[in-house]
């Protein structure tokens, strides 16, 4: 397994006489990859059709001469101001119908064909110039699709493209009316051109309409990326990469990744804890300077699934960020811990964002490996330490994990469209399951709902999958491993209507969800023997063996052979109990870890990471705060 460090660099932000010295310092710090160019359109093409590659040629030369391998970004996340003059209707529109204007980034709508083609043309120009340049070792296409809520756009371009998409999908307007149930409230259409986007309706739009729009928006993102891939592929043999952002679910990353070679994601652990995780105040305080102990690992495992195990961290938080509600500094050692955790999960490259903190514009308060005055920031020494350790450490072998957890973007769109309770969130449900596994020391493979083969897994978890595809259904039937399905699994049709006969409708498992309830915060329905159901409860009927009951004797979990259906959202105690029961059946070893300690098993080593702010001791090993340990297995 190859492993290396990288850094994100913006030569256009610094005087040219700094470039060579920067490059030498990067190499001295043990960095081998450098990503450049992804926001530089206004410098690459200052006027329409007038290109300036001189500075980029010189920057590439300076970096490569120092021995660095370059990732070149395509600059489509930052169309220059003149592009807007050329395509005044290229902007995305928010749900109130207002254009989202120029002055930051990602100001474009994926459905605007003119800008999409201009971005692909830019790829061709870059590809012709640098595609066979041996100093360019990889490409990054665009930057963080979906960041700043940029997948869903209510522009005229989106509306027109949506109508075409609907005509393709349904072929006839009658088929669409039937599929959506438009007879309800006289919403029937006479032609595709009558259909608007599902915003600005008096009350909620038809869920089938919303889901279709979300599928369309995902497809538009995939198609947008594919246009750049088509432009670049013939011009380069270097791998094509995109950098995804944590907990962005509005497009199907698995589908988009199918056009690329390597997946990568941007890991900002402390920003995520503050900005995009449900957790109580104690948890947020306990992990204030470390980040949530499972959030990074979840994304590592998710992105490992996208491109046959080839994945990177393209941006790694190196110090305080600027964009979360609160931005504390990492505990000493955390930059090293995050880096090692990524490698333990199989990353090929961990690349820090960014080399030097910029003293201007939006991210002037965002740390880099260097301070704005060019002195080393705290993260630099930790990066150097990781580089030294990487050089000294023997190869780590990847291995299939014992547990598979299914993750499906479309289920998030389904449940966002039809939440039925303010606290029902698909990511949160899957992440709760993931956390429960990790608290018990288990390594996990995250797999898409389209998976066809579960061979080798000892345990399979399928929480909240809106519709179970046939392939997964037969893979579960073929597997001997216990499969935990539910809650809220296979209860709706492909058009987001209630399935009749009632779900989960799995062969061999006679149980039906005959009623669902959502529960407000603070309500916990106790389960006999310990733990409780929170957020979501289902009433189950059928002849399957009841394995868990509520305090009132009603079924909470049932089974038939190796298939288990869970009719509620477990709290942490109930998750623990369920995993203990299933692991006995699965022959899976669970351990009890001290708070903050997490493990990751590879084919050759066990790694341990201490996310706690205090030292922990486990099985005779003591890890300091932010400590990392590994040993051969
Ligand atoms: C990422 C983005 C970078 C930078 C960074 C700051 O979302 O890709 O360009 O903005 O966040 O944390």
Task: Describe the fold and architecture.
- With 633 residues, this protein is an alpha/beta fold.
- Among the domains are: 85-136 and 151-238, no CATH class; 403-586, Class I glutamine amidotransferase (GATase) domain (Rossmann fold), CATH 3.40.50.880; 598-632, no CATH class.
- 32% of the residues lie in helices and 19% in strands.
- The strands form 5 sheets. It has an 8-stranded parallel beta barrel with strand order 1-2-3-4-5-6-7-8, surrounded by 4 helices. The protein has a 7-stranded mixed sheet with strand order 10-9-11-12-19-18-17.
- A hairpin with a 5-residue loop joins strand 15 and strand 16.
- Helix 5 (113-130) packs parallel to helix 8 and helix 8 (207-232) packs antiparallel against helix 15 (409-417).
- The chain is globular and about 75 Å long.
- The chain starts with a strand and ends with a strand.
- The model has no long low-confidence stretch (mean pLDDT 97).
- Residues 143-144, 147, 245, 266, 268, 315, 321, 323, 353, 363, 366 line the site of beta-D-galactopyranose.
Compute the separation of the termini in Å: 17 Å
Query: What composes the largest sheet?
Result: 8 strands, parallel, barrel
- Output the CATH class name of one domain: Alpha Beta
CATH topology of one domain: Rossmann fold
What's the arrangement of strands in the largest beta sheet? 1-2-3-4-5-6-7-8
Per DSSP E runs of 2 or more residues, the count of β-strands stands at 25
Question: What class do helices, strands and sheet pairing give?
Answer: alpha/beta
Give the CATH H-level superfamily of one domain: Class I glutamine amidotransferase (GATase) domain
Query: Treating each run of at least 4 consecutive H or I residues as one helix, how many helices?
Result: 18
**Helix content range:** 25-40%
Q: Cα-atom Rg, whole angstroms?
A: 25 Å
Taken as a percent bin, the fraction of beta residues is 15-25%
- Small molecules in complex: beta-D-galactopyranose
């Amino acid at each position: 397994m190859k492993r290396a460090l990288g850094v994100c660099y913006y030569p256009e932000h610094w005087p040219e006489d700094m470039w060579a010295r920067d490059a030498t310092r990067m190499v001295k710090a043990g960095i081998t990859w450098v990503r450049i160019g992804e926001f530089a359109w206004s410098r690459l093409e200052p006027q329409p059709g007038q290109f300036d590659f001189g500075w980029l040629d010189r920057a590439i030369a300076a970096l490569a001469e120092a021995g660095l391998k370059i990732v070149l970004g395509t600059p489509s996340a930052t169309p220059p101001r003149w592009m807007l003059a050329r395509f005044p209707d290229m902007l995305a529109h928010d749900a109130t119908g207002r254009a989202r204007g120029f002055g930051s980034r990602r100001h474009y709508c994926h459905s605007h064909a003119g800008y999409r083609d201009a971005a692909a043309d830019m790829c061709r120009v870059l590809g012709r110039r640098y595609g066979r340049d041996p100093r360019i070792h990889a490409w990054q296409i665009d930057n963080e699709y979906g960041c700043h809520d940029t997948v869903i756009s209510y522009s005229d371009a989106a509306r027109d493209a949506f109508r075409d998409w609907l005509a393709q999908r349904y072929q006839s307007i009658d088929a669409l009316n039937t599929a959506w149930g438009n007879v309800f409230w006289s919403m029937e259409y006479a032609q595709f051109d009558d259909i608007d986007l599902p915003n600005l309706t008096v009350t909620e739009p038809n869920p089938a309409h919303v889901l279709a729009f979300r599928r369309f928006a995902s497809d538009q993102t995939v198609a947008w990326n594919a246009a750049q891939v088509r432009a670049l592929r013939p011009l380069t043999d270097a791998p094509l990469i995109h950098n995804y952002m944590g907990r962005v679910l509005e497009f199907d990353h698995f589908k988009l990744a199918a056009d690329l070679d390597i997946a990568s994601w941007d890991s900002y652990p402390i920003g995520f804890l503050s900005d995009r995780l449900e957790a109580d105040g104690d948890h947020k305080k306990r992990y204030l300077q470390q980040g949530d102990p499972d959030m990074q690992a979840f994304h590592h495992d998710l992105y490992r699934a996208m491109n046959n195990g080839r994945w990177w961290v393209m941006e790694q938080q190196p110090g305080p960020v600027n964009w979360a509600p609160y931005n504390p500094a990492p505990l000493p050692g955390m930059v090293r811990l995050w880096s090692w955790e990524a490698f333990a999960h199989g990353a090929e490259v961990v690349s820090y964002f960014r080399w030097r903190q910029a003293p201007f514009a939006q991210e002037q308060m965002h740390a880099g490996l260097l301070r704005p005055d060019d002195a080393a920031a705290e993260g630099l020494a930790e990066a150097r330490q990781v580089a030294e350790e990487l050089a000294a450490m023997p190869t780590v072998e990847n291995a299939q994990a014992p547990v598979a957890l299914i993750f499906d973007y479309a289920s998030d769109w389904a449940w966002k469209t039809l939440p039925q309770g303010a606290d029902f969130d698909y990511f949160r449900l899957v992440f709760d399951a993931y956390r429960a596994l990790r608290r018990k020391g288990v390594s996990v493979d995250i797999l898409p709902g389209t998976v066809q083969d579960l061979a080798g897994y000892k345990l399979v978890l399928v929480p909240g999958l809106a519709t179970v595809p046939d392939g997964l259904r037969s893979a579960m039937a073929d597997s001997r491993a216990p499969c935990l399905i539910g809650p809220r699994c296979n209860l709706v049709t492909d058009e987001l209507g209630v399935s009749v006969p009632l779900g989960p409708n799995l062969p061999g498992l006679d149980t039906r969800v005959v009623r669902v309830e959502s529960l407000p915060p603070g309500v916990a329905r106790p389960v006999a023997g310990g733990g409780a159901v929170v957020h979501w409860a289902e009433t189950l009927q059928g002849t399957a063996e009841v394995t868990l009951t509520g305090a009132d004797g009603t079924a909470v979990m049932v089974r038939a052979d190796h298939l288990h259906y869970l009719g509620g959202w477990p709290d942490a105690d109930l998750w623990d109990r369920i995993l203990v029961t299933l692991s006995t059946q699965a022959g899976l070893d669970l351990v009890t870890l001290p708070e903050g300690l997490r493990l990751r098993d590879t084919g050759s080593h066990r790694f341990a990471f201490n996310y706690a702010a205090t030292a922990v001791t486990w099985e005779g090993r003591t890890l300091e705060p932010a400590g990392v340990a590994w040993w051969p297995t």
